[in-house]
Amino acid sequence: MSAFSGVVSAFSGGFVEKTKLLIQLAIHDYVVSHGILRTETISPSKTKLLIQLAIHDYVVSHGILRTETISPSVSSMSEKSKLQRRIQKSMAEILLSAFLGVLFEKLASTTLKNFVLYKGIDAEIKRWQRSLNQIQDVLTDASQKEITNQSVKRWLNDLQHLAYDIDDVLDDLAYQAMDREFNHESSKPITRKVRNIIPSCCTNFSRNSKLHEKLDIISAKLQDLLEEKATLGLSVKGESRSKNINRRLQTSMVHASSVVGRQAEKEALVQRLLGDEPCDQNFSIVPIVGMGGVGKTTLARLLYDEKQVKDHFELKAWVCVSDEFDSFGISKVIFQSVSGLNKEFADLNLLQVALRDHLREKRFLLVLDDIWSESYEDWETLVGPFYACATGSKIIMTTRKEQLIKKLGCNHLNPLQSLPHDDAMSLVALHALGVNNFDLHLSLKPYAEGIVKKCDGLPLALIALGRLLRTKKDEEEYWKNVLSSEIWRLQDGGVIVPALRLSYHDLSGILKQLFAYCSLFPKDFLFDKEELVLLWMAEGFLHPSTLSDSNKEQLGHEYFDELMSRSFFQHAPNNKSLFVMHDLINDLATSIADEFYVKLDNLEEKNISKEMLEKYRHMSFVREEYVTYKKFEPFKRAKSLRTLLATSVGVVESWQSFYLSNKVLADLLLELPLLRVLCLSNFVISEVPESIGTLRHLTYLNLSRTAITHLPKNVSNLYKLQTLIVSSCHCLDMLPKSFLKLKNLRHLDIRDTPLLNWMPIGLGELKGLQTLSKIVLGVWTKCKMQNATHAREANFSQKRLSELEVVWSCVVDGSRNKVLEKEVLNELKPCTDYLKQLKIRSYGGLDFPIWVGDPSFLRLKHVEICGCKKCTSLPPLGQLPSLKKLLIKGLEMVKVVGMELLGTGLACPSLKTLIFVDMPGWEKWSINSGVVFPCLQKLKIEDCPKLVEVALESLPSLASVEIIGCNNFVVRRVVEVSPSVTKLKIECISGLNDVVWRGVIEYLVAIEELSIFHCNEIRYLWESEEFASKVLVKLRNLEVFACDNLVSLGERVEEADSCRRSLLTSLRVLNVSQCNNMECCRCPDNVETLGVFSCTSITSISLPIGAHKLKSLDIINCKKLLEREWGGQNMTANRNNMPMLEYVSIECWSNLKSITELNYLVHLTELRISRCESMESFPDNELPNLTLLKDLEITNCPSMDASFPRGFWPPKLRHLKVGKLKKPVLEWGPQNLPTSLVELYLCCEDGVGSCNQFRHLLPSSLTSLEIIEFEKLESFSMGLQHLTLLQHLSFYDCPNLMDLPEVLFPSLLSLTISGCPNLNERCSKSGSYWPLISHIPCISIYP
């Protein structure tokens, strides 16, 4: 059965969104058969009787329960199931008829009564009904025969296409009817104005009209299908077995208790993990190799969760790598796992430096799951930080490919094999029968043995089949049918396991359709259950069997759970709230998607013709950093496309940016008038075109995490819209003024939209609204929330609010009524079952309603109370059992925080983050009841200057403390009761002098990261390094910023360098910034990253000599440094002990005259020298010896020797920024830049007027070119044809630039123009360049 044959068999549920029209259909049949409504009308008094008679006649004539009734006493399960199947079968027939009848009924309704010529369509529609009824009768037979008969499969596909066409006609007419209803034109004659809102296909009913042509085409196709039905020999057959969507099959694939076998493999690998293997580095590889579905990941999980392994390794991390070996992304996940921090990094170097700091001397276990890359270079890039870990660290790698493993020296591989026969039998028994063997089911054992043989012991296939058979424990015939099914004889070339395909064929029609929809997902795509259900609903797949559609979402969740229980979905490895499909399951979905679903990224692989594109209805594409219009050009022909879905591979990080060509939005959307689903989330889109309002069929619109500022007004005309998602649109400040016409809206997600401070009119009148993520309410006229009655009418207690944000006006004057505001807030109590996040802002009451802090909010995890300036006390938020994060800000009248916050019972049992900000009146924090924050990990207190009394007994779990703008007593007391603090940041602490600080530092024995900002009374951080080494035994990262009176880190300097080697041995990162009284900075030996920034009085920076570990050095804006020369020889005593420096940045070093002996810096990968005005000498002749150097910047050094540059460059240079040197660009001559160079930045040149003057400096290998401050440059358009690889072009501060290189436009992915006034107008949307550049995904034009 094709992916969609089940859809056709479920016309009852696939295409009738308004099942209530059954009544209309019944009335239509009745009045036509009885001659009513030909010329007369019916009075309201007769309406009820007419409806009763009509329904009675209709259900009897269609065999619907005929005259029987359902007795409440029916208790037999068999009787109930028989009756249920009988009803479902009858309902299917009704809804099929209703689906076809809706078209006629809408055209003949009173709203469209002037469409009198549609009487000629009546016979046409009835013929459709009869034809489809005949077709439906044979669908069961077709679904069985299509497995081996391609002609039957094509017949079903043609039928599905026809069903789509009928649905499009129906939806279009339904939209027009709604449009007339909203415009109140139903009772007026057809005027010119009315005709303007009625499609042309509906204003002329001659045989030549477009509508008749469409109907004729559909009728002809139906007739062809009927004739072909007979030719194919399809006959009427009953259902062989029933389906029960409520069946629940437990999945336990990730639990050790459900893993059969693998004990020997596990024990062997555990020994490898715990043992010390001979290895020339600190870590070794433990590979797990095998085919897909054999259980590599399961075995890795067993190892990862093994207690011995957990106890042995200090740090652990798990990363799913998959197809794309993204070193940055992998490193980021590892860093987050080992540090617990979600920190952003500008580049890979900074990330890996930070990662290395956390891995330093720690025994580390890493699992790299599902590696596909065979590149040794990728591996080298990734593992740099791992060399710092302790000996005995291990890396488990699971992969289907052996090439990379062998390159790493693992030559004796033992691929993981399929399960032995006995284990495979046990696995089938476990999942099918719930026992470990077939001893009590001997009659089934032969069939199980046959299944095990055909599955070849593959665990994934065995589990899927076991679950398929679970409800057939005692049905021997069913097991026999599974074993003898013809599906086993199909060949898939080893790509799709036949057993998985068999599991698919056992799904009901609707589940097949829902699963086929998931073929749009790429491998390793992480999806949310709720979001997928909303997509299914938007596509029209979810239709409950009742006449009400209020539980579509519930039905979708049941379908999801059924697919989950059959192993079609799995929990994502690192995030149990998300889901993923196994690679083989994904392959299965792709194989059955046929000609309806397509992944844009697979077009070339599938070799799809342009003609085939016209048939596709659903399309997805994977987000890339730059998505071009060219990628979508083929889909201009896909006029029938219903779905345009942006997806991604793996986790989308907050720092990632994705750019989409403006032309895609402006042009392509106009070509796709039948779109139901449009998802463009996570793209840097600043404007939504007005054309989106013409997508009249749109039911799902997702623009979350984009840069939009507003939605077009005509979005409010999308009458069919069910789901609107604009969450995390941080620039969004305006929605359409009115949502009154969005009668079908069920889900509105406006989470994390800080600039959106008012709500559309009519939101409270949307009766079908099921979920709201946020409500912004202001007590002002625009929002009509002026009294408790208005608040009560909003009926929030009945809505599925997951997030509630209540915002009042920030104006504090006599118009505020504190009593009224409390009454309003009291009436806004949301449903306790769904609320996860609560924010209350600028509330004017003196205290809070009792529901704020009510422990019945079991799911509430995040609470923010801000700007409530009149409140004198806090609500009992400590009673919330699931509260994890609490922010209290701007409560100016609160003086004491005490037991009232805790309430009764166990206080704050789950709280992990507690933040107090801007509490100017707060004086006392007193909670004397033992441990009250048992799980608290992060505490922040900011701008609470009067807080002088902190009475807390213990904060045992506290790891991170941030105290800003407070008295020194707060710092002292918090660190005294927090023995586990590893991260401390203090800023603007009054009274924190040397004496007080040394009292604080004694409690920092566990501290790893220490930041001190704007503490101007501190002169020395410690008495001596020897003293600091005894206290700060774990300090790894020290940052000091803007401490104006700091003289040096230590008050007493050790006399001999030999003493320093044992001091501060744990310190790895030292950054000192804007300490203007500091004269000397002495770098401890073990520091790996040193940064000294804008210390205007510093004269000396002492770097370690000898066996130091410094790898990253920044010296920025230290203008009084006395040294006049810097180079490799400064950091080494002999050539046998080379410096380890990898990164060097020197800027604004006024006295620096020369750089020397770069040859010593053999590990250097990045070198930046800028704004050193006195520098005269640079050893560019040594650059060719720096074989690892990839990034080089030399700019704003106007005194540099006029011989530079002279053509000497690092052989692997990739990024070069150069300019404002003594030698002007016009005199540079040929430079012999290496072919590895891909990014070039030329800056600060005032003698060049045309690009022809320096085109010889632009190698053909460039992919990125940036021109900065070329003041006289006028033309950049000629002689650039050789830059065929250029993708990124930027101009900054070129005030005379008049033109751009049109020859380069087609290949560009980004274009940036800033400070080029002559180009601003030409590159605007009305300018002459716009037609040439609108296809570029990222266009940034600045004044």
TrEMBL record:
Ranges of residues in domain Disease resistance R13L4/SHOC-2-like LRR: 658-995
Stored Gene3D superfamilies: 1.20.5.4130, Helical domain of apoptotic protease-activating factors, P-loop containing nucleotide triphosphate hydrolases, Ribonuclease Inhibitor
Record domain Disease resistance protein winged helix: where: 520-589
Keywords: ATP-binding, Leucine-rich repeat, Nucleotide-binding, Plant defense, Repeat
Record bears the keyword Nucleotide-binding: yes
Domain called NB-ARC: residue spans: 263-429
Top-level division of the source organism's lineage: Eukaryota
GO biological process: defense response; response to other organism
Xref: InterPro entries: Apaf_helical, LRR_dom_sf, LRR_R13L4/SHOC2-like, NB-ARC, P-loop_NTPase, Rx_N, WHD_DRP
Alphabetized GO MF terms: ADP binding; ATP binding
Domain Disease resistance N-terminal: 99-186
PANTHER family per the UniProt record, alphabetical: NB-ARC DOMAIN DISEASE RESISTANCE PROTEIN, PLANT BROAD-SPECTRUM MILDEW RESISTANCE PROTEIN RPW8
Protein name (database record): NB-ARC domains-containing protein
